[in-house]
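Rotation project, supervised by the postdoc (A.L.). Task for the rotation student: set up a whole-complex structure prediction and record inputs and outputs verbatim in this book. Inputs entered:
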Amino acid sequence: MTHLALEGVGFVYPDGTRALSEVDLTIVPGEVVAIVGQNGSGKSTLVRHLDGLLRPTEGRVLHDGTDVAGVRVATLAAAVGIVFQNPDRQIFAGRVQAEVEFGPRILGRTPQEAAETATAALEAVGLSDLADANPYDLGFSRRKLLTLASVLAMETAVVVLDEPTTGQDARGVARIQGVVERLVAAGRTVIAISHDMRFVAETFSRVVVMGAGRILLDGTPAEVFAEAAWPTLASTYLEPPLAARVGARLGLGATPTEASLIEAMGAQG
Amino acid sequence: MVLLAIRAGVFGQLARVSALLTLPIAISVVLVSVFTRAGTTVLFAIGPFDATAEGVDFAGQTLVRLFAISLSIGLFVLTTNPRAFVFDLERRGVSPRIAFVAVATIEAVPALVERAGVIGESQRARGLDTEGSVRARLRGVLPLVGPVIIGALTDVEERSLALESRAFSRPGRRHLLWAMPDRPWERWLRWALSCLLLAIALARITGRI
Amino acid sequence: MLQLHRIGYRYAGYATPVLHDIDLSMADGEIIGVVGANESGKSTLSLVASGLAPGSIGGALTGQLSIDGIDMAGSPLHEFSTRVGIGFQNPATQLSGVTGSVFEEVALGPMNLGLTGREIVDRTNRAMAVLGIENLAEREPRRLSGGQAQLVVIASLLAMRPAHLVLDEPTAQLDPEGTRLVGEALRGLAATGTALLIAEHKTDLLDGLCSRIVVLDGGRIVADGAASDVLADPRLVDWGVEPPSRIRLGRAANARGLDAALIDGAIGS
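Outputs recorded:
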């Protein structure tokens, strides 16, 4: 299990744009964290520091207490798997099964082991009966599930999802929520970037709000979507989920999820 | 040309591009000419090869010509606004579709580079080692190149669908809203330069220069 | 008036048709929403309605597509573009990439139509006004945010003055801010009298905008009626469609014996 820490991390792109400033973040094994914020707030830059795709210009990134400054991405990828937003920037194999087996094979598993984890991963995302299909015969949302499977098959301690629900229909979103739940049950750490506040409130127990390269808020959905936090959310162009807004208007306190809203309404009588 | 480049503010880039284009050829040309050109004045010798003054002279001339070519190509590419160039072509009768393809090709390069970068990240995040042994890197060719090509093709398909929707394939000329201003002195200069070029060519041929 | 009569469509190189027996009419000025799970045929329907299938991408079309009574079979594509415009999900691939300003981009379509200079300028200005993007006129198209780019795309289509506009998931790739921008713009668009066919997952967006909703499932139309009726249909979930928030919350409230009207009121304010 991998304990992740960013200490005083800052990042400036080669062209001079500052993307992160003084970021202090600790994620312990088994946490389920969502990172939210407008485009350009630093979310994507931050997660790229977790597996070494980007190296901090200030501060350090630690895995289990050790600075990962000199460690290659290929090595860090065994601990931290990232599923990027656009599946078409990753899929290259002609068969779904082969695409999913790629990650484990690269990490050194035997063909047998790779085939097994691939099958399990395809089952988790609901693509088992498409194992022999050509990825490009599948629609966009299924290709997204495919890239998710290809990272799941790597069995990394930490799984990072970049906008997992974009382009998914209702069933797809439910499928992703199921995958997150199973990962959590297995003790893995799950980190997701999302702009779907309802999905965030329902699926994650910790929400990190970013704006202009800094962490603005860090807490439970109830805390982060409470009325007191709305001005901060607005500063990074975020709106709390509908349930939170309705709850606030009805004077019911913090109700980040629809279930909690109905609960609170019932309690009020 | 150097003066023009400095004036246009692209000298640094031009020097780099030019050098990159010319150096590989230049090196082999120089080596071959200096050592194998028939001549009488031997400057020095390496093994069985004699370096002649005539050879050096010839190499020098060739280098200058090579640089003239690469500098002019480079200058053109760096200072011409693709859009202006292409619409001007169309104004003079080139089909809008050809014109479009020309611009789109140039404009597509930065997007392609960015796409390749993102693809690289996705594959590296799955453990693909792009910093290791040659064998490891060869393994990465298909996962890195495949999505680039597929992506480029899908891109083209999406773009052409969108263009059809804007009546791009409608036959016939169209009224262009904008055109490059063609000042009189520019026209004069073009004519003068063309005549000069012709004169030099003639002189070369007839052996004057 | 755009009419699809017993339309079936099969993509080139594939054995099974994706659309079956589609009967759909778009009256002038009508705003129709199309919903359905991914791969239910929404995108295919959009391509067929705009003439791009089979006109540009080939494939086999059965049945009849007529616009204002004229059978469009075999019509060249540029004939379609002045009658039906189509917008896609990805704003980046729809911008021509050859224009230096938003104004030029929007003017490109009218230019291709061979109109006079004055008409081109006039149409461009009007289209930009409808979408509310006059302030973006001098901006470079490639530097716009996703939402802004999508507005420019829609304006470019509008400048062709089609009587019908088909939008295939216009907000699928946008962040919440972009979705909001496009949602507002669609209301302005609806007021122009252009008939709209909008395929979307976000039923909240369609709720209140469309007068009529069509549900696709497995390439067939399974529901077609007044928006308020269809969106409240309990079978939506079975068809893979998420009902709008107010209906979802209303149902959850009713299930607990609570008053759904309270929620409606809170959402409305």
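Student's summary: The longest strand of chain C covers residues 2-10.
Supervisor addendum: The two ends of chain C are 37 Å apart (CA to CA).
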